[in-house]
Amino acid sequence: MIDSSLSSLGAEVVLATSSDNNHPPENIIDGNTNTFWMSTGMFPQEFIIRFAQSTPVSAVTVDSYNVKHLHIEKNTSQNVSQFEFVTEQECKHTEGHLQSNTILLNGSDATHLRFVITSGYDHFVSVHRVSVQNAHT
Fold first, then answer.
1. Are 27 and 103 in contact (CB under 8 A)?
2. CATH of the domain at 120
3. What is the Cα–Cα distance from 118 to 135, expressed in whole angstroms?
4. Mode of pairing for the β-strands spanning 67-75 and 37-38
5. How many domains does the structure of the chain reveal?
6. Which residues of 66-103 are buried (b: 16+ CB within 10 A; e: fewer)?
7. Distance of CA 130 to the CA centre of its chain
8. What is the mean pLDDT of each run of 10 residues along the chain (137 residues)?
9. pTM for the whole thing?
10. Helices H, strands E: what count in the chain?
């Protein structure tokens, strides 16, 4: 299994609805749970990850804090429009430590994944790492 979301493999965060210089969206894909992207309050919040090439996605793991409901969409084109629904997840509240949610997907190809946080357990949420597993070796 390859983690295609890592910036070292060419993945990029091409859109985020909020940004803080101390906690930029790029922290989501640096592979380090000690760094993170933080929302600036209000919902929904979203970010889009673009892969270096079309990628068969079998599972996504999201390490976050205070995320209550997460909606995931994908597309297979080079631009960031016309996404299709993939799945949604209700995340368990984990006071004082990171949430780690692995979401199994169907292995279909994607060039972009859009993550929409529709609600949180607080006004602010953070995403520490997104890990995308695919079947290519």
1. no
2. 2.60.120.260
3. 29
4. unpaired
5. 1
6. bbbebbbbbbeeeeeeebeebeebebeeeeeebbbbee
7. 5
8. 69 92 94 92 93 90 96 88 92 93 88 96 94 72
9. 0.92
10. 0, 9
